[in-house]
TrEMBL record, chain A:
GO terms for cellular component: nuclear chromosome; nucleoplasm. Transmembrane segments: none annotated. The lineage of its organism: Eukaryota, Metazoa, Chordata, Craniata, Vertebrata. Residues 1-113 form the DUF4502 domain. Residues 175-194 are annotated as: Disordered. Residues 270-660 form the DUF4503 domain. It comes from the Eukaryota. This is SPIDR protein. GO terms for biological process: double-strand break repair via homologous recombination; regulation of establishment of protein localization to chromosome. InterPro entries: DNA_repair-scaffolding, DUF4502, DUF4503. Pfam families: DUF4502 (PF14950), DUF4503 (PF14951).
From TrEMBL, chain B:
The keyword Zinc-finger applies. The lineage of its organism: Eukaryota, Metazoa, Chordata, Craniata, Vertebrata. The keyword Ribonucleoprotein does not apply. InterPro entries: Znf_SWIM. GO terms for cellular component: Shu complex. One of its GO terms (biological process) is double-strand break repair via homologous recombination. Residues 74-112 form the SWIM-type domain. It comes from the Eukaryota. Transmembrane segments: none annotated. Keywords: Metal-binding, Zinc, Zinc-finger. Pfam families: SWIM. It comes from Sitta europaea (Eurasian nuthatch). GO terms for molecular function: zinc ion binding. This is ZSWM7 protein.
Length: 661, 138
């Protein structure tokens, strides 16, 4: 038995009671007369007896005074006397051996219970009962009856009648005995209606209180009002798991989602006390909605209910989450201080930054979040602080969240084959007006890494592959001289409506973009522009191949029907005017970096009008020989390149010509 | 019949007293003993150990599972009094000696004291649990 538990307490109480009962019975037998103390004694006359599950139920009449004092003639059933239902345990009943017309004294402590639908009170705890023998006649009768067994009617209790523990007008609980199966309430995430399907319960303004009240009676009806500071997507690590507590798995099979969406919509919310919580909502089927959710929800208030605590995390364990929280600290309006009266002098913004945060998730199938979309932006909301890239590059700290609006010039995917495609990093080269203005010492273009756990919407991915676009980077991370898009960073195609822009420039670049020229400060994995003279050719790298003019497929095949033509199996058509692609590695001499060997892989394309194979092959051979001879000494004009590597011994820079978006 | 109404009222009083005072008074505990006899202490023990789980499916169907002292998991229905434990079959169904078994009583007490563990399951899972009982008996 659990120490301090209810079972242990009842055990103690019942042991005490048992001793009291046996002591009392002993006393009755030895005294052999009715105890003189009559206070609290219930005197009843049994009218009818029946049995229900070993409990003897006696319908009785309560007598005002002891029938001993009355003569037998006076002991007439008075219809006015109140009726009681007296319950006896099996053991007490066996001891009493009562029959109808018997009079029983029930000594305290007995208990009276009033039922809801009945006028007849029920008497329980009748251990201290004694039959009263009125006269010698009764005594004799008693002895006779003792030999014969009385038949008592047994009531069979229906199993269909369950107990309803709630008040009759409480509609929340669903254990009704008439087998209704109501549908679970719909989730209200779109916030279209202001219905509150939960019974009217007090709306709290403290997340901590809600968290601490979990498990207590009625906690699921508690609603908390919070402000949505940020909306973002997190990659879902695994399918939903069954809820296990301690070491007792209570479900045989874990829940698995049949169709696996890979991202979950999350909110970073803040309550009136300044406390933050990350709320993980349902999985998103399409990441395109994220821009919609950000626009509609950020800055608005919402009510949370029926949350489940997933985790309580601390600064040391969730650096990413806390870097975002730090960017929202201190709060822009004074927040309440717990435990004190909330007059405005006590409210403060001078508080230490949070050191812990609860991660909440929703109970499936229940109402959880209701966003007041029509309402105004809350005062507590801190929109992202947008800065120019020049300013961001000058930030001193590490792991600082920053937001900026920039043009993406070039995108490079990580090509390490050992890493699965969906976990590869993407490198974006961006610039804005603050960088394009010529300032020595500041690069014109900055590389932004997007790691795999930063969720990019399909819209963004398509936009970036189609052409140069302006993108809003919200809550990217700056540290160690690099900008990284991590978990909780959101890339959006539209400018933010609200931003605390201390001199932020949201203008778009109109003129041509300039890259830094190749020089002694150029580093690997960057982009630059160069000019120089061809001083050598790496002949072994000269390579030409035909590509499809429609889709760019570089793996054309011979047409099955006409072996003189080329066929593209991605377009499923014959290629009549293929595009010849040529690549060649050339060595350049660049005045801007004259000491180094510059090796550039250059590309060239020409469109071939005639596709007859014979002609094509001749052309390829011609081009390859032509290339080597005529290229030497040629001036190569401003070429945009991606820097593969920069080595100092030997002093060599390996680049690849690129086309900007 | 009287006893079910009495038992229900007793459980309601326990729930009310607990909601008001976060405690169960002694007289109500003794009332449990009076009505339910030998099931009372074991049922309270199951509640102390948080052995009752309420399973809820999206359509609103409810089932209870109680982790018995032997480590076996018993299923209690919510729409009628039924438990898959052998004591229920014997004492309640066969001999009509008790109103409930200790597991069903533990379910009610857990409801009254807010001590149910909650578990959301799929429709399929709920069905499997119910069907599993059928197969065992079949």
């Amino acid at each position: 038995l659990c120490r301090g538990g209810l079972a242990e307490r009842l055990c103690r109480l019942q042991n005490r009671e048992r001793s009291a009962i046996s002591f009392w019975r002993h006393q009755c037998i030895s005294d052999d007369k009715i105890p003189s103390d009559k206070s609290g004694v219930l005197i009843v006359k049994i009218l009818e007896i029946f049995e229900e599950c070993t409990i003897q139920v006696a319908i009785c009449q309560q007598l005002e005074q002891s029938p001993v004092t009355l003569s037998p003639e006076d002991a007439v059933i008075n219809a006015e006397e109140p009726i009681l239902k007296v319950l006896f345990t099996r053991e007490t009943a066996a001891h009493l051996r009562s029959r109808p017309q018997d009079v029983i004294y029930i000594y305290p402590p007995w208990q009276k219970l009033l039922l809801q639908n009945s006028d007849v009170p029920v008497i329980m705890h009748t251990y201290f009962s004694q039959k009263v023998l009125i006269s010698e006649y009764s005594e004799a009768r008693e002895k006779t009856y003792g030999l014969t067994k009385m038949l008592i009617r047994k009531n069979i209790i229906s199993l269909a009648q369950t107990f309803r523990l709630d008040d009759l007008d409480d509609k929340l609980h669903q254990e009704s005995s008439d087998n209704q199966v109501p549908c679970a309430p719909q989730t209200h995430n779109k916030g279209d209606s202001k219905r509150h399907p939960l019974a009217l319960s007090v709306v709290n303004d403290s997340l901590l209180e809600m968290v601490e009240s979990q498990g207590a009676v009625g906690w699921r009806e508690v609603q908390v009002r919070v402000v949505i500071q940020r909306v973002y997507c997190l990659p879902a690590r695994e399918g939903c798991r069954s809820h296990t507590q301690g070491n007792k798995p209570l479900c045989a099979t874990p829940v698995t989602n049949s169709d696996p969406p890979h991202v979950r919509l999350c909110l970073l919310v803040q309550d009136a006390y300044g406390m933050f919580s990350e709320v993980q909502l349902q999985s998103l089927s399409s990441t395109d909605d994220i821009e919609q959710y950000c626009r509609r929800w950020e800055g608005k208030s919402c009510c949370l209910a029926g949350m489940k605590i997933l985790q309580r995390t601390t600064r040391g364990r969730a650096l990413g989450l806390f870097s975002l929280i730090d960017s929202l600290w201190p709060p822009v309006v004074p927040v309440k201080v717990p435990g004190q009266s909330q007059d405005s002098e006590r409210m403060t913004t001078n508080l230490p930054p949070p050191s812990f945060c609860y991660i909440l998730t929703v109970q499936s199938g229940e109402i959880h979040v209701e966003v007041d979309e029509e309402e105004q932006i809350s005062n507590l909301y801190q929109p992202p602080a947008v800065h120019g890239l020049k300013e961001i590059l000058r930030i001193n700290g590490c792991n600082e969240r920053c937001s900026f609006w920039a043009q993406v010039l070039y995108r490079r995917l990580q090509t390490k084959h050992s890493v699965p495609i969906d976990q590869r990093e993407v490198l974006l080269f961006v610039t804005d007006s603050t960088l394009q203005n010529v300032v020595p010492g500041i690069p014109k273009v900055v590389a932004v890494s997007v790691i795999a756990s930063c969720v990019l919407s399909m819209e963004i991915t398509e936009a970036l592959s189609a052409g140069s676009r302006h993108v809003f980077f919200k809550d990217a991370l700056w540290g160690n001289g690099r900008i990284i898009c991590v978990e909780r960073t959101v890339l959006l195609l539209q400018k933010p409506l609200l931003c605390s822009a201390a001199g932020a420039d949201l203008s778009e670049l109109t003129g041509p973009v300039r890259l830094d020229e190749l020089d002694s400060t150029t580093q690997a994995n960057s982009i630059c522009a160069l000019r120089g003279t061809v001083v050598g050719v790496n002949e072994s790298t000269a390579f030409s191949w035909p590509t499809c003019n429609r889709c760019g497929n570089g793996k054309l095949e011979l047409c099955p029907q006409d072996r003189e033509s080329l066929y593209c199996n991605q377009c499923s058509e014959v290629v009549t005017t293929p595009v010849l692609k040529m690549q060649l590695e050339v060595f350049l001499s660049c005045p801007s970096r004259s000491q180094s060997t510059i090796k550039v892989k250059v590309w060239h394309e020409i469109s071939v009008v005639v596709s007859a194979l014979f002609v094509l092959l001749t052309m390829l051979l011609f081009l390859q020989t032509y290339e080597v001879q005529s290229v030497l000494g040629k001036e190569v004009g401003l070429l945009n390149c991606y820097v593969h590597s920069v080595t100092s011994h030997p002093d060599c820079v390996v680049l690849e010509e690129i086309v900007l978006l | 019949s009287t006893l079910p109404a009495v038992a229900e009222e007793l459980l309601r009083e326990i729930k009310k007293a607990f909601q008001d005072t976060s405690q169960v008074p002694d007289d109500l505990l003794l009332g449990l003993k009076f009505i339910f006899g030998p099931s009372a202490v074991p049922a309270l023990d199951l509640v102390d150990q948080r052995s009752v789980t309420r399973l809820r499916s999206p359509s609103g169907r409810i089932l209870y599972q109680v982790l018995g002292s032997s480590g076996k998991l018993y299923t209690c229905y919510s729409s009628c009094h039924f438990c898959t434990c052998p004591a229920f079959g014997f004492s309640v169904l066969q001999k009509n000696e008790s109103l409930l078994c200790k597991h069903i009583l533990a379910v009610y007490l857990s409801q009254a004291l807010g001590a149910c563990q909650e578990l959301a399951v799929s429709e399929e899972q709920l069905t499997n649990i119910l069907l599993a009982e059928e197969e065992e008996e079949g």
